[in-house]
Amino acid sequence: MTDKQEKKLHGTYAEFDAVDTLLAACRRVRDAGYTKTDAFTPFPVHGIDKALGIKPTALPWIALACGLTGTTIGLTMQVWMNTIDYPYIISGKPFFSMPAFIPVSFELTILLASFGAFFGMLALNGLPKFSNPMFTNPRFDRVTDDKFFLYIDAADSRYNHGGVTKLLGDLGGAHIHDVYDDDSSVAVPKPLFVIMASVIFLSLIPLLLVARMRVTTSDSPRFHIFFDMDFSPAKGAQSASSLFADARAMRVDVPGTVAVGQLDEELDFYTGIDMDALARQDKPRAARLVRALLYPDDPEAPAATDEPAVAEGPAKPADEPAKPADEPAKPEMKEEPAPVATADPIPAPATAAAVEDTTPWLKENPLALSLEVLQRGQTQFEIYCATCHGNDGRGNGLVNRRAQRILATAWVQPSSLHQDTLYSDAYPDGKLFSTISNGIRKMGGYSSQINVRDRWAIVAYVRALQASQNASLDDVPLDRRNELTKEKAAVDRKLAEQAEADRQRAEAKAKAEADAAATEAAVVEPAK
Amino acid sequence: MSLAITQGLDNTVERPGERAPLVLGDSTYSSITESVSQIAERPPTKAWVIGFMISASLASWFGICIAYLIYTGVGVWGNMNPVFWGWPIVNFVFWVGIGHAGTLISAILYLFRQDWRTSINRAAEAMTIFAVVCAGTFPGIHVGRAWLAFWLAPYPSLNLWMWPQFRSPLLWDVFAVSTYGTVSLLFWYMGMIPDLATFRDRSRNKYRRMAYGILALGWSGSSRHWMRYEKAYALLAAFAAPLVLSVHTIVSFDFAVSQVPGWHTTIFPPYFVAGAVFSGFAMVLTLMIPARQIFSLEKLITVRHLENMCKVILATGTIVGLAYGTEFFIAWYGQVAEEKFAFINRAFGPYWWAYWIMVTCNVISPQLFWIKSNRTIPWRIVVISIFVNIGMWFERFVIVITSLSRDYLPSAWGYFSPTWVDWSMLVGSFGLFFTLFLLFCRFMPIINMAEVKSTLAGQLHHHHGDH
Question: CA-to-CA distance for A148 and B125, rounded, in angstroms?
Answer without folding.
Answer: 28
